[in-house]
Amino acid sequence: MNEAFIVEAVRTAGGRRNGALAHWHPADMAGEVLNALLDRTGIDPAAIEDVILGCVTQAGEQGFAFGRNAVLASRLPVSVPAVTIDRQCGSSQQAIQFAAQAVLSGTQDIVIAAGGESMSRVPMFSNIALHAREGLGEGPFSERIRQRFGVETFSQFEGAEMIAAKYGFDRETLDRFALESHRRAAAATDAGRFDSQIVPLATVDGGLHTKDEGIRYDATLEGIGSVKLLKEGGVVSAASASQICDGASAVLIVNERALKEHNLTPLARIVNMTVTAGDPVIMLEEPIPATKKALARAGMSIADIDLYEVNEAFAPVPLAWLQALHADPAKLNVNGGAIALGHPLGATGTKLMATLVHELRARGGRYGLQTVCEGGGIANVTIVEALA
């Protein structure tokens, strides 16, 4: 039976909204991480059989076959196809799983999973604004859907508040988690723990962007606590939510035949790929049942996992996951998460995988688990095994 291997995983350093990466066209930014995979692995560019690229806001500069445009902006030959997929915040994690399924089946041997999102140039929700601006249609949620679930819209912000209430998290708990995200990210950056995964990008002043721009090195609990709540009477603020971020990331996935034919050395093996769906109203809680299902299918327990990357869309999400899984907080997002490092939507899945694989190897860990909550009440879970 075939296996799916990760040969290399890279990402850009995150750019804040209208920050260091805002001048990059998103296709060019995504093209740079594709080039980095070629440079780091030495693989023949013509051997790449497909590029599967995640992107959430497929409009404007990220519209019209964004994945294909990223290939055209890279050094890959025009013979390499590409496709753009949207599973909301898990888009590029799903790209990993689709790529792994392709090489496991033997229909393809070498596939790139990637993601790209310029939230500066293509603002969040701009792809669903046409009906409001032009008075066309009802938007993405039909009357039938609204009646079925008793809501006018599905809101991730409401979902975060619902999770906080369900699991008993007050504002101080969320703010302390946010502070720890910044502290871990700052410590990791200062120690050079991201260096092996980051692809430098040129800045407008002629320098190189190599450090995640959203980290607040001087963050304090008092400062975080002063940030306005997202909802009156709620507990979640912008400071305990993920940061808007520009970025791109990519992972090269191959099977055993490709390893031998191209003399490649794998970083990790994909052990399990799971995707589940549940309540679209609370929405962000689905990583919990998805993780339980993934562990059961892999014949593992949470104690077998050395590191977890649980996307910090909002602080209640990883905190609820920890509580429900009886997981070890010391293994969670050890180098900080999206609250400090940013959440470039469609690029986050492959971004987290780059962080997870490189950190597992740096620590001598064996198994890592990654999960992302997604719009519509969906969640992906991927378990990997680091290889020496």
UniProtKB/TrEMBL annotation:
Gene3D superfamilies: 3.40.47.10
Entry keyword annotation includes Acyltransferase: yes
Residues annotated as catalytic: 89, 343, 373
Source species, domain of life: Bacteria
Ranges for domain Thiolase C-terminal: 264-385
SUPFAM superfamilies found in the cross-reference section: Thiolase-like
Keyword Transferase: yes
Example GO molecular function: acetyl-CoA C-acyltransferase activity
Domain called Thiolase N-terminal: residue spans: 5-256
Record's keyword terms, sorted: Acyltransferase, Transferase
InterPro entries, sorted: Thiolase (IPR002155), Thiolase-like (IPR016039), Thiolase_C (IPR020617), Thiolase_CS (IPR020613), Thiolase_N (IPR020616)
NCBIfam families, per database record: AcCoA-C-Actrans, PRK06504.1
PANTHER family: ACETYL-COA C-ACYLTRANSFERASE, BLR7806 PROTEIN
Family: Belongs to the thiolase-like superfamily. Thiolase family.
Name of the molecule in the record: Acetyl-CoA acetyltransferase
